[in-house]
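User: Just a sanity check before I run the rest of the batch. Below are the structure tokens for the first item. I only need the designed sequence back.
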């Protein structure tokens, strides 16, 4: 459970910066996220968004990390948050490509209307750690960006900036 509580804490730290309500852990979402992470780790599933996320029933962030098992939760959430530098506050829009300019993982992370978090982690035979976060209600609705993605209220020395470099 430490992984889940660490992931929740990291999510809510960034959500607070953007004035979003805190998330709560949801057991059903976490069960689904864990199952997806285990499929990634086993090689049974291509590293892509789940059918639930593609259908718009949940929001979802996925990550693969190497050599950071003990800090996997914070590493993944920090990675997703780093996309904030690609968000244009004067012209809010979702960007998924090119990868180095994407911002959709950041917006999913701080989406104010999302209230529940499900989180899963699995380690593959290759030592890579697969992390899946699911959010409900889903976010990243283009017509609702300004009502759900707020500018930062504050910055601290613990906040993360810079560009994201991998999925």
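Assistant: Here's the designed sequence for the first item:
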């Amino acid at each position: 459970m430490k992984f889940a509580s660490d992931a929740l804490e990291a999510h809510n730290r960034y959500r607070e910066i953007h004035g979003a309500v805190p998330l709560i852990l949801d057991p059903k979402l976490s069960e689904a996220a864990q199952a997806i992470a285990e499929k990634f780790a086993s090689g049974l599933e291509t590293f892509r968004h789940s059918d639930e996320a593609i259908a718009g029933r949940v929001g979802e962030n996925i990550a693969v990390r190497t050599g950071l098992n003990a800090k996997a939760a914070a590493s993944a959430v920090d990675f997703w948050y780093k996309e904030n530098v690609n968000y244009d506050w004067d012209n809010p829009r979702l960007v998924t490509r090119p990868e180095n300019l994407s911002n959709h993982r950041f917006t999913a992370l701080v989406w104010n209307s999302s209230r529940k978090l499900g989180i899963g982690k699995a380690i593959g035979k290759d030592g890579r750690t697969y992390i899946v976060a699911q959010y409900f209600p889903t976010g990243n609705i283009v017509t609702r960006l300004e009502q759900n993605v707020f500018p930062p209220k504050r910055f601290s020395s613990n906040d993360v900036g810079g560009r994201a470099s991998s999925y």
